[in-house]
Specification:
InterPro entries: CLEC16A/TT9, CLEC16A/TT9_C. It comes from Panagrolaimus superbus. Helices cover 49% and strands 11% of the residues. The protein has 18 helices and 13 strands. The strands form two sheets. Strands 3, 4, 5, 6, 7, 8, 9, 10, 11, 12 and 13 form an eleven-stranded antiparallel sheet that branches. It has a two-stranded antiparallel ribbon with strand order 1-2. Helix 11 packs parallel to helix 16 and helix 12 packs antiparallel against helix 16. The relative contact order is 0.07.
Length: 614
């Protein structure tokens, strides 16, 4: 609070438009700013030392967060001073900041081809400070001083450095000019950081720095992007060869076999944002764009090759597939948050049962490896669809199967094999028991219905859930416990099941029969969705000449009868098997003649628009 008050007071004084006040401010600034820079420099070095040595745990994250807040506060303070547009004060602050902070601390570690004995920040810290510099300061002179040496210069552009003298104090020295400087040194360092895979923190903040360059320069300084061959306008015909190599090399790393140098999903997500900006900035159908699309396709194929054995042997692959798909759908990069996230500046951890933070951390076991590969596959698939201008027709899996039954629907139960039961559910500490309900299933749904008060043989649906997401366990002799989860929220901290309760039957024979039916129906529903996963991955296990059919006869006795409500729009003339699958190809009139057609859907009552459940 004291620091904030002091900054507010000094900004108020700096902004006074009076010649005598400005002369006083300029005179005092000659001592104030150098002393402030030396204090900040010492704190920057301490923070860098902490980043190098601290483990990624909560206490260290909190300690680092306070350091980050202090440094970001200084950068915002300088940005506010530059925004006052006091010419003499801005010139002095610019020279002081560039000479004492920007060149020897932020830029030098990225511009030296070898160790020189100077104090150098680690690459992660350098990219971190440069990224937040672009986000915090709008002064074009400062931005140009930061980016010009990186994009166009060599090691002779940055010669100031800090060393430790005999007394253990920091002193600034100036390096001699190199006779034959190294060209494109920054891009080489960028290539090593992003494609090397040995430093996860530096890799992430290097990508974030590229994203910040786009965010800052596209609207204000596009000429710098054009000079550096970084496409941004949609009319560029070439991409910087070094950046092109970085993009392709990063995609080649995406499908490596499991090791500690694998890409984290959060880094891959950020990469696709940066690469998408670059491709959008290119003219259509350029060679660079085609190479990136081809590299993306190769990475996806390699990932599919790694996922295929697990798909064939793991019973829980469907659960992992859907969980990670919905997790990736909710994954987003909020620039202001990730730029100051201490967990991303510290080394990633490898913890058991850490699926919640797996996009930022390293996999612990085989299941984590599968989750990470699935996340990267979904990110790359979305990126590939964007590049090729295609629409997603195969994901998510659930909407491809028509939601035939919903709560409050009225269904005909007269032709169905029913099992009557009551439901015990807990709300907090209160246990409630419902009136008797009918348990019935179709191929995809678990249905509980209560007797219709006006129509004999009909029922009103009170609970419905997907069979593939059901979990069944035995209670006492005459009951079973049922939990139906939702894959869209199953990975969340506050996961609330779609249905959770105990089904109580009249005797143990009915309870055993119900468990057997639900188990069989669950297996059929899961097998169907696994076939859809084969379609998504483009694997040849399913012959495409044999379309995926919905079995017209229930696997659990007879299915419930007609459902009375306004049905969704169904294209006329299509077999029912395909009407229930969105995105499936249309069969010709001579294919699969034995399939059920809409003309075969009967009307068993006076109501209109009946649709049979299958």
């Amino acid at each position: 609070m004291v620091r904030t008050a002091i900054r507010t007071i000094t900004l108020s004084i700096f902004g006074i438009q009076d010649d005598s006040v400005q002369r006083f401010v300029n005179q005092q600034a000659k001592n104030f700013f150098p002393d402030l820079m030396r204090s900040i420099m010492d704190k920057v070095v301490r923070m860098d030392t902490f980043v190098r040595s601290a483990q990624n745990e909560l206490s260290n994250q909190e300690r680092l967060s306070s350091m980050i807040d202090e440094q970001i506060g200084y950068l915002h303070y300088f940005g506010d001073i530059f925004a006052l547009n006091c010419k003499d004060l801005n010139e002095f602050l610019h020279d002081c900041f560039v000479a004492m902070m920007l060149e020897p601390l932020y830029l030098l570690p990225l511009m030296l081809p070898h160790e020189s004995g100077a104090i150098l920040l680690c690459p992660a810290s350098s990219f971190f400070f440069l990224t937040n510099l672009l986000l915090s300061i709008d002064d074009q002179n400062v931005i140009q001083s930061a980016l010009q040496p990186l994009l166009f210069g060599n090691e002779n552009e940055v010669r100031r450095e800090y060393r430790v003298d005999a007394n253990g104090k920091y002193e600034m020295t100036v390096r001699e000019i190199v006779a034959i400087p190294t060209k494109l040194l920054f891009f080489r360092r960028l290539h090593e950081t992003i494609t090397g895979g040995y430093d996860h923190q530096a890799e992430f903040f290097a990508l974030l720095f590229l994203y910040a360059i786009y965010q800052k320069l596209s609207p204000t300084m596009p000429y710098l992007l054009e000079a550096a061959q970084i496409p941004h306008s949609g009319k560029c015909t070439a991409l910087n060869p070094e950046l092109q190599s970085i993009f392709v090399g990063f995609l080649q790393r995406a499908a490596n076999k499991p090791n500690r140098n694998n890409i984290r999903p959060i880094a891959m997500n950020l990469f696709t944002v940066v690469a998408r900006r670059a491709v959008i900035g290119l003219s259509p159908d350029t060679v660079c764009e085609k190479e990136i699309v081809e590299a993306t396709e190769n990475a996806m194929q390699n990932l599919i090759g790694l996922l295929e054995p697990d798909l064939q042997i793991r019973d829980d692959f469907l659960d992992l597939f859907e969980e990670e798909y919905f997790r990736v759908e909710r994954m987003e990069i909020k620039m202001d948050n990730v730029a100051v996230d201490p967990a991303l500046l510290l080394p990633p951890v490898c913890l058991k049962d850490n699926a919640q933070n797996l996009s930022k951390d390293l996999p612990f076991d085989v299941e984590d490896d599968i989750r990470v590969r699935l996340q990267i596959f979904f990110i790359l698939r979305k990126f590939w669809l964007d590049l090729t201008g295609r629409q997603e027709h195969l994901l998510p899996l659930t909407p491809r199967i028509a939601n035939i039954v919903e709560v409050s629907d009225c269904i005909d139960l007269s032709n169905s094999d029913l099992l009557m039961c009551s439901i015990k559910q807990k709300t907090g500490k209160v246990e409630t028991t419902s009136p008797s309900k009918a348990l019935v299933t179709d191929q995809f749904h678990f249905i509980l219905a209560e007797t219709h008060i006006n129509k004999f043989g009909y029922g009103v649906v009170t609970h419905v859930g997907r069979l593939e997401n059901i979990s069944i366990s035995t209670g006492d002799r005459a009951s079973i416990n049922v939990v139906i989860s939702d894959p869209r929220t199953r990975f969340a901290y506050s996961n609330k099941p779609v249905f959770e309760g105990t089904l109580v039957f009249a005797d143990n024979i009915r309870a055993f029969s119900a468990k057997q039916r639900l188990t069989t129906a669950r297996k059929g529903a899961r097998d169907f969705k696994v076939k859809l996963i084969y379609d998504v991955l483009g694997l040849s296990t399913i012959k495409r000449s044999e379309p995926i059919n919905i079995i017209p006869v229930s696997m659990n006795g007879r299915a419930p009868g007609p459902l009375y409500r306004n049905p969704p729009f169904l294209p006329s003339g299509l077999p029912l098997q395909e009407l229930a699958i969105f995105g499936q190809r249309h069969r010709g009139p001579n294919e699969n003649n034995a399939a059920t057609t809409p003309a075969q859907i009967s009307d068993n009552s006076d109501d209109t628009n009946p649709v049979h459940l299958v």
